[in-house]
Specification:
Order of helices and strands: EEHEEEHHEHHEHHEHEHHEHEH
Largest sheet: 8 strands, mixed, barrel
Protein name: Phosphodiesterase
Number of strands: 11
Bound molecules: ligand C2E, magnesium ion
Helix content: 40-55%
Strand content: 15-25%
Strand order of the largest sheet: 3-4-6-7-8-9-10-11
Radius of gyration: 21 Å
Length: 286
């Protein structure tokens, strides 16, 4: 997109750029401003214990509504933030917002529901990762046991003793640890034994056609059995219908998450959801 003009010099033609390149330029400009102005918000999706019909946690998912770009999905801007290093200040904003929202949740009377935060492998890889978390939590006068950290398989793949030690330190500090999108990487469960994980989240792609495909059922069933042997609880992502729910419950899956129960929603709406849930399930909130 650099053009040579008649006099042998180069100039920049924005109009000639293809749509993708224009989008990246806009995205870059807008995300930097958005970080400056803390334009990001969080939505929350409940995690349901299917045996006791209780809400055992909430996952925080970042949302970005921008004047120029409209709604930008985290699937687009998180990878961009990771490529550019902007993920570090962005992650700090997300964790601070999670602390603020936790205070709202507790003020509404829900004192024992932890919030799960998605952690970028880039942020996790910083040598001061634990310290940066602790600093934010102290600022908001809250403790690690109120949080779960979701890291993807990618974060633990090909990882050395240093990474294992980091997990152990986080666990000792009081954070609950989850492996997210399980099944999309290439790690085996036996490999995961080295990490002190509390939860294993089965990726949505395995849940999607589970009611129709016997092979998917066999894989999910095997993951659940093995995770339980390794003392991990299993969460199914992307549960959208009653057929999936019934199958997963029969297989002994501990917790479910998905549109069947609720889309990710702002905290005020989530609190409404919790109140309705309590009424419908005789006030049994864990
Ligand atoms: P994830 O952590 O695996 O989050 C689950 C994604 O599935 C979310 O998409 C959620 O809205 C969506 N989902 C939940 N239930 C259903 C369902 O029943 N059906 C379908 N079709 N989708 C469902 P979202 O919010 O667009 O996030 C996409 C990914 O972006 C996340 O995957 C996570 O990897 C990343 N992400 C989101 N928020 C954050 C964040 O705060 N920090 C970081 N580092 N990454 C984030
Ligand atoms: Mg997640
Ligand atoms: Mg996931
Ligand atoms: Mg996923």
């Amino acid at each position: 997109f650099v053009k040579q003009n008649g006099r042998g010099s180069f100039s920049f033609y924005f109009e000639d750029l293809n749509i993708d390149a224009k989008r990246v330029i806009l995205l870059d400009r807008e995300i930097r401003k958005a970080i400056e102005n803390r334009e990001f918000t969080l939505s929350f999706q409940p995690k349901i214990d299917v045996v006791h019909n209780t809400i055992v946690g909430l996952e925080a998912l970042v949302r970005w509504q921008n004047k120029e770009l409209g709604f930008v999905s985290p699937g687009e801007f998180i990878p961009y933030a990771e490529e550019t290093g902007l993920i570090i200040p962005l992650s700090e904003i997300i964790i601070e917002k999670a602390c603020e929202e936790l205070a709202i949740l507790r003020a509404a009377g829900y004192r024992d529901i932890p919030i799960a935060i998605n952690i970028s492998s880039i942020h996790f890889g910083q040598s001061n990762f634990l310290e940066s978390l602790q600093k934010i939590l102290e600022k908001y006068n809250t403790a690690p046991h109120n949080f779960e950290l979701e890291v993807t398989e990618r974060t633990v793949m090909n990882s050395d003793e240093e990474t294992v030690r980091k997990f152990v330190r986080l666990k000792k500090a009081g954070f609950k640890l989850s492996i997210d999108d399980f099944g999309t990487g290439y790690s085996s469960l036996s490999y995961l034994v080295r990490f002190p994980l509390d939860y294993l989240k089965i990726d949505r792609s395995f849940i999607q056609h589970i009611a129709l495909l016997d092979e998917k059922q066999a894989v999910v069933d095997a993951i659940i059995q093995m995770a339980h042997r390794l003392k991990m609880k299993v969460i199914a992502e992307g549960v959208e219908n009653i057929q999936q729910l019934n199958l997963l419950r029969k297989m002994g899956c501990d917790y479910l998450q998905g549109y069947y129960y609720s889309k990710p929603v702002p905290m005020a709406e989530l609190i409404d959801f919790l109140q309705i849930w309590e009424v419908e399930h005789q006030g049994r909130i864990e």
